[in-house]
Amino acid sequence: MGLCGFNAYQVKNGSCERGMKRRKTPVPEIRGALCVDTLANQIVKITPRRLENFFNHCIQRLAKSRVFPKYIHAACDTTLYETTDQFEGCGSVLRERKVKARGYRKAGELKEVKVLLYGWKIWAIYELQTGIPLAIKIDTIEKPDNLHVLAVLEQAKENVKETSVIRSLVVDRAFLDGKSLYAIDQQGIEFVIPLKSNMEATRDARALALEAPCSMESTREVTVTHGYGKNKFNEKVLTTLVGVPGLLSCDWFNPEGSGANTTKKDYEPIPLNAVVVKTWNNQRPPLDKQVVFVTNGEVKDPFVAFDRYDDRSLMENNLFRDTKQGWHLEDSPKKTREGMFVQVYMVMAMKALTKAFLMWQEEQARLHELGKETSWEMYRRKLKMLNRNKLIVFVGAYFGIFLSHEVIMLVDVPVHKTAKELGVTRTSIYSKYTGLSPP
């Protein structure tokens, strides 16, 4: 209230009665001090650069508080911020979508149609352990996914450099760009990315895994619980991987990317390691359908790279889907570029801060159960000490916070030794707040 200048009465009942007579819908329980249109008109005046700086400073403060682990395993992905063509500054791209068509030959069959999508694209670096976004970039929807991967990674490194180091990064097939991956490798960051099925490196990795001895296979069996109540049952799930070191057919992995001239006599391919998935959750696909991952890290234990990529799904569910469904990510205050930037950066900042607070709250509850002193107990004691001499006085819709001896002296009750120790009188207190002499 001190920051915004509104008291509790104004927040609940509004600042004025303007427009109330023309209102056709019921008055909400809490009107708010400002109407939504006024708030939207003002908040979009914040520039995108300031919003980005605000988000980055939030992450930097969390890093200084040691919210993140010392060595970070991160994921990078994009999501679409779909709008209509009414949004100012949005981009457009033609995509194929599967839709239900009336009168189509087979019931329930989906038909592929080309649709024009409008909006923006959001890049994010996601910390897999805490579930907090480390950096955000925004561009129009038609831009390729690999365009800003290095920029958003550099910003994430800058935000956590005080206490943490990014050790690994997992990305999807859309980021399969040899030049960008080479730049990530030169930064000392291990990456994991799946290859496309029609690539030469994919075919070579599958063939080498097929010829590999059984001793090179790594198998893991876990028990998974399905269903609830009477329908609950356990299933043993088997996953088999083969690590293929020194794969030389990734000729796109170099400083120049796929544009490099690989036919030169002095050209030397840079080896990468591969992980071939022979069995995934008891499913054994045919040879031409086996998933292949490439990484610049070691594959002595192929499950290290496999598990890192498997955790990438947390980003789609816990960040993008959660912010769209539960945090209204796509409900911008204005149909403009500025309105979209406000919504995205503010939602992502609040998501990060809320997650950090919940982590802190869990830690405090754990310490409390162990009988140890918690920081919230120390905070409450400090707050109580700072405010034990204060009283809040309500008069209708108004309130004021005063020192206790001031209230008592204003009602003309003598306070022992206060006049001598503090040098205050009833007249000086009354003049302090009114500028007049007491009646």
Characterization of this structure:
The chain is elongated and about 100 Å long. Helix 5 links the parallel strand 5 and strand 6 (190-194). Helices cover 35% and strands 25% of the residues. By secondary structure, it is of the alpha+beta class. Helix 3 crosses helix 4 (149-160) and helix 3 runs parallel beside helix 9. The chain is built from 13 helices and 12 strands. Strands 1, 2, 3, 4, 5, 6, 7, 8, 9 and 10 form a 10-stranded mixed β-sheet that branches. A two-stranded antiparallel sheet has the order 11-12. The protein has helices spanning 8-13, 36-43, 48-64, 149-160, 178-186, 200-211, 302-310, 313-325, 337-369, 375-387, 404-410, 418-422, 426-434, and strands spanning 71-83, 91-100, 110-127, 132-140, 165-170, 190-194, 217-226, 233-247, 272-279, 292-295, 390-395, 398-403. The protein folds into 4 domains: 1-34, no CATH class; 47-172 and 312-374, no CATH class; 193-302, no CATH class; 389-434, no CATH class.
Task: Draw up the topology in text.
Layout: H1 8-13, H2 36-43, H3 48-64, E1 71-83, E2 91-100, E3 110-127, E4 132-140, H4 149-160, E5 165-170, H5 178-186, E6 190-194, H6 200-211, E7 217-226, E8 233-247, E9 272-279, E10 292-295, H7 302-310, H8 313-325, H9 337-369, H10 375-387, E11 390-395, E12 398-403, H11 404-410, H12 418-422, H13 426-434
Parallel strand pairs: 1-5, 5-6
Antiparallel strand pairs: 1-3, 2-3, 3-4, 6-10, 7-8, 8-9, 9-10, 11-12
Helix pairs in contact: 3-4, 3-9
